[in-house]
Structure formats: C-alpha cells, structure tokens
Amino acid sequence: MRPDYFHLKNVKDILERNVLTGQWIQEEKKKIHMLTAAALLELDFEQPSMDYHGLMKLTKILTNNNEMDLENMFRRMCFNVFAHNRGDHSKNFTFLYDEENDSWRLSPAYDLTYSNTYYGEHTTAVDGNGRNPGEKEILAVGIAAGMNK
Predict the structure, then answer these.
(1) What confidence tens digit (pLDDT) does each residue in 76-135 have?
(2) CB-based contacts of 77: which residues, under 8 Å, 6+ apart?
(3) Antiparallel, parallel or unpaired: β 50-51 and 124-125
(4) pTM, whole model, 2 decimals?
(5) Which of 9, 16, 71, 84 has the highest count of CB atoms within 10 angstroms of its CB?
(6) Where are the beta strands (DSSP E) in the chain?
C-alpha cells in the first residue's frame, strides 16, 4: 500500500473528524486538513481509475452539496477537456477542511496544464470516454450531477 494513502474506516469517520490526522497544508500559521480524491477512494493515481461522474458525486457528498464547489468541479472538467489536460488524475482533486464552518470545501485548482498521458487518454474519464470526450459527455456528467443544461 502506498504511504500517501489516507485510510478510512468509513465515511462516517470523515464526518465525525476521527481520522483527520493525514496530510496538512499551511495557511498563514494555521494548519488545514486536506484530502485528495486518491486518498479518499484509495485509488492509484498513476492509473486511469476514475470518471467525472464519481468525482461529482464525491464533491456533492463531501461538501454537503455546496453548489459553488459542484460548479467549480464541473468547470475543472470542462477546462481539462478543452485545454487538453489529460493528467487530470485523482491526486489533482483536493478537498480542504473549513474548521470555522465544520465542513469540507473543494480546494483551489492546481496542476492545470496542457499534457498527455502514457495512454493518450484523460486519467479521469468523462462519461466513460477518456480518449476524446466532447460536449455530449460533458453535458451527460453535468445533467447526472443535477446541474441545469
């Protein structure tokens, strides 16, 4: 097992904050808990192993259906498709714990660049299509996540 994985007993542990001893980032002098999609779902980020459908569901659940975070995740998917960022792996999607509001939020976007992968496909598929996703697949993900067309 990779040492960067954050092991969880179940989702209830996250919500009760019993296992928040994993990774940290600094904000001024205050530490903030962070979790990547790879850590939460115990995925090998080096292999294509995720679809944006699952990532949108994870965002809805973890952020308690925060509309701004859901819209931002959708925008990242669109950017990654149109900017040819095929390195959209599960360690590039991070959630930060907001202690003041006792909630998880989507982190600012990072590692957004034109890139290919070993396989020539997106590491995170769009409606099952990793090779050449387009408007049809993007709309399917958004509609399934409950967004307005």
Answers:
(1) 999 999 999 998 988 999 999 998 999 999 999 989 889 988 788 999 999 999 999 999
(2) 52, 55, 88, 124, 126, 138, 141
(3) parallel
(4) 0.78
(5) 71
(6) 23-27, 30-36, 50-51, 94-98, 103-106, 124-125
